Amino acid sequence: MQIFNNWNIVAKGWYIACASHELPKIKAKSVEVCGQKIAIFRGEDGRVRALDAYCPHLGTDLGIGQVDNNWIRCAFHQWAFDETGLCQNIPCQSEIPAKAKVQAYATAEKYGFIWIYPDAVAPECVADFDELKGKEIIAQPDRAFERSCHHHICMMNGIDAQHLKTIHRLDIKMDLSLHRSELGTQIDFTMRGKFPQTTWRERLGQRFLGSTYEYSMRYAHGCIGLLTMMKKVRLFPPLHMIYAYTPIAPGRTRIQPIYVTEKRKGIGGYLVSKFLLFCTRLAYYMLRDEDGKIYDNIRFNPNLLLSIDTPLAKYMEYVNQLEPSRWSQKIVNALTSEHSEA
Q1: Are 245 and 142 a contacting pair, CB within 8 Å?
Q2: For 215-260, how does the pLDDT look when each residue is reduced to its tens digit (9 = 90+)?
Q3: What is the pTM of this model?
Q4: How many CA atoms are closer than 13 Å to the CA of 27, on its beta-carbon side?
């Protein structure tokens, strides 16, 4: 089954529901994730739960209901559902029908966002940067934006060695190494090489950063990209940012950039962290607009790949071995309906 660039398939993975601050304690709301209407709620214990939005009784959106301890009660007839999607209470009778249940989804809170996995149990957590594992971090989101292509296509931008020269005028000859995780849901691409000195950008980069250049892209579930820049250079520690992708309509993808750095102690440490987040944003903005016009005007045709395109071929192979989720059966109809109503 082809998953790559296929609007009919949503691969199992972590997708952003909303920012964490949008869901205070003992509150519920409805969100659209990959064309699915999902009710999320934060219980008295502070944890977030996620269920299919529509009550199995008469179809009321559970997201407009009330949080009762760690349950969600339907606004219409007050049926109460727990985090597994099972109905635990019906005010008008003591007997609870076996069909009184809805699909539950795993949730996580990380990088300032609530993430949803399209299954009740997720086999792994939202992806990490190796350099930041076990450390307290600061995450700073930027404004989300949209592109007119499938997210699998614009995700490959970070490993397209050709375009560094043709679009960004960085004439860097790269060596490639890659590593795939045990579960096959994550793949790392590391690009490294030497700075040439043919343009002012390259000469400036070599003067301040050293003669070699290295960065890595970690792809998780075909829907999250973790970019690490400034690896093994002078003056700077590595800079980290995340791209989180969500299909929102046929031919439209939402991209959420998030800048991430280690949280450092004291006022001096705080200022250093803020400066590194600023540098990450600056580097991102220098490249983003140059790429945008390409991905908003592309009809992807991978039938003629060169040897330099090996990372792209490896990425497509990785995506095609991912596992389709239960959302795949409904996404096209849901997204088409949502798009036409808008």
Answers
A1: no
A2: 899 999 999 999 998 888 877 889 999 999 999 888 899 999 999 9
A3: 0.90
A4: 8
